[in-house]
Write a structure and sequence with these properties.
By secondary structure, the chain is mostly helical. Helix content is 77%, strand content 4%. The longest helix has 31 residues.
Length: 448
Amino acid sequence: MTNLSTEQQPSAKKLHRAWSMYDWANSAYNLVITSTIFPAYYIAITTSGGKEQDYVSFFGWRVINSSLLNYALALAYLIIAFLSPVLSSIADYKGNKKKFMQLFCYLGAAACCGLFFFEKGNIELGIILSILAAVGYCGSLVFYNAYLPEIAAPEDQDRVSAQGFSYGYIGSVLLQIICLAFVFTLSDGGLSARISFLLVGLWWIGFSQITFRTLPVRQGGVEKRPDHSLLSNGFHELRKVWEQIKTMPLLKTFLAAFFFYSMGVQTVMLAAAEFGKKEIYKIENGVKVPMATSDLIVTILLIQLVAIGGAMLMARLSKAIGNIKVLMLTVLLWIAICVIAYYTRTAMQFYLLAVLVGLVMGGIQSISRSTYSKLMPETKDTASFFSFYDVTEKIAIVIGMFSFGFIEHMTGNMRNSIFALTIFFLLGFIFLLRAGIKGKQSAAFKRI
């Protein structure tokens, strides 16, 4: 916990609300930039309208448009996977998680604002800024997640984690509705999308100030290892965390499960709008036409609204049957989602699928984060432990997004990429099953 004096410490409820408000601030990026308007806008300006796959030129490299976007996201997550151990080490040593959280917040928000200038003739600018925005978003979450065990007692962490995701869904939905108004009222669809990107950056910067004014700055930090530089120390700390995890069979097995099902969960969430834009149609005047950007926004809004209740429902269910069983249930539902998505073709089918996605999307993220937090050993080195968690997730996303783009690139069919994700979910389920068996002999299992 923080070393602030009692007079300086905000109340627990105020601190939890302030922490959760960062989810409110940055989830607008996750919804508008990664999930709806940006991928829809990108696919729209790079599609010729013919029956063949659409290719773009990126610094002279000819590649399928959607595959390029997936490769770009994979690269962004690979960058943050290498950066986060260094950053968490610096933050723990100097006790300045908040400063690094602010740095990445402002980087991501500025990149979103810069996307206002992304038009058809400058694909390279759009891709580079989208990478920077993703790095900013993911980088800030390393430090945001590391605050959870410092601001909430173990018995409160499921609730506070779910509260953060719920705040994120509510805030992102509000901004999405505002962006939807621009899409419907401006005749220039390109301009409405670019205004939305600018609004995301301003929203992110503005509401994050509530968090930054309240979160404590821990004085001091863990002792720097004298035999390593400050930059290399992060990787040594990561190795030290791994050595501890290897002695904790339940935590080790849970992380293996988390690694595999995260490949599927994050890829589905990041590629949903691309899939809707390229593979789903609606009937207008008896003619099949692609889903419009406004249709995709409505779909993702539906997911977000259902996810608000889904996160809270999973938190309550975890108290009744335990975290591992809830995660096993949600992973089985994700497998069903992938199979259904493979056969989904019409807008109405896509909307119904969105309801199912919303039900499990927030729950699996929230319960995964709080489960890891509960299984961690007691330590002051929370940033390094959550850096390990974050690196695990980011490498999973790199593999998931790259394989998704690569399978489409090789087969020319995005549906093959969707169906292949079931393998990742199945492996995740198997490790969760093993965690449930091992947990019966573990004292840590009682906490989840």
